[in-house]
Amino acid sequence: MKLENLTLLSDGAPAKDDKRRYDDACGTAHALELIGDRWALLVLRELMLGGRRFSDLRGDLPGISANVLTQRLSELEQRGLVKRRRLPPPASAQVYEATEWGLEAEPIVQALGRWAARSPRHDPTLPISGVSILLSFRTMISAKRAKGIDARIGFRFGANEYVARVKKGGIRVERATLERCDVILSGAPATLASVVYGGQPLDRLGVTGDRVLAEKFVTLFVLPPKVGADAAG
């Protein structure tokens, strides 16, 4: 008897989002079925550093409509990559979080980002979210340049705060209050990107704390070389 190809929910019921299937046993094909829809991977990216409210996601993905965001969150939840949680009082707000399995997709985001950054058509002046720029630091840090640095770097993007720990040539980032930071950088994520990757002066950012460390920190990240125009087609 011919078996039906169905996407199953965690409870074994068929998913309602199996409209686009590749009928291909390759894991890459199934990965595209999971996160290949427009906006799906970017929505998941925005949850890599902790839970977000719907309004926060809308704000950091300015090109997405409310209806599409609702649909993508629902689909990612059905596929086991995202879950919802109600914050305790006094907040009592609903947030969306990546599941443990969903968080395992970060290397995919990193690899795609590094690969696509080599494109001559990549436009780094477009809007960028706070989560996106901080994830790029985890991708683009130069272990050689970061050697010997052991520091806590704070970031303030409006009401959102994150802390990065630079140690042993690597960097870890988490959402946290700005306590015990050696330096705090404040400003828009796009401004931070322009300083780190575009060579703009550090004075475009607010700097609190060790300025020498801040000047060193913004030099730790190296974009991969661009491919030739002929290779890009």
- Extract low-pLDDT stretches: 1-17
In the sheet with the most strands, the strands line up as 5-4-3-6-7
Measured distance between first and last alpha carbons = 46 Å
Element order: H for helix, E for strand: HHHHEEHHHHEEEEHEH
Q: If you average the pLDDT, what whole number results?
A: 90
Rg over CA atoms: 20 Å
Largest sheet: 5 strands, mixed
**Estimated share of beta-strand residues:** 15-25%
Shape summary: globular
What structural class results from the helix and strand content? alpha+beta
State the helicity in percent bands: 25-40%
Number of helices: 10
Helices, strands, pairings?
Blueprint: H1 27-35, H2 40-45, H3 54-60, H4 66-78, E1 82-86, E2 94-98, H5 100-103, H6 106-116, H7 130-140, H8 143-146, E3 151-157, E4 160-167, E5 170-175, E6 183-186, H9 189-196, E7 206-209, H10 211-217
Parallel strand pairs: 3-6
Antiparallel strand pairs: 1-2, 3-4, 4-5, 6-7
Explain what this protein looks like in three dimensions.
This protein is α+β, with helices and mostly antiparallel strands. It contains ten helices and seven strands. The chain has helices at 27-35, 40-45, 54-60, 66-78, 100-103, 106-116, 130-140, 143-146, 189-196, 211-217, and strands spanning 82-86, 94-98, 151-157, 160-167, 170-175, 183-186, 206-209. Strands 5-4-3-6-7 form a five-stranded mixed sheet, with helices on one face. The protein has a two-stranded antiparallel sheet with strand order 1-2. Strand 4 (160-167) and strand 5 (170-175) form a beta hairpin. Helix 6 packs across helix 7 (130-140). The radius of gyration is 20 Å and the shape is globular. The model is unreliable at 1-17 (pLDDT under 50).
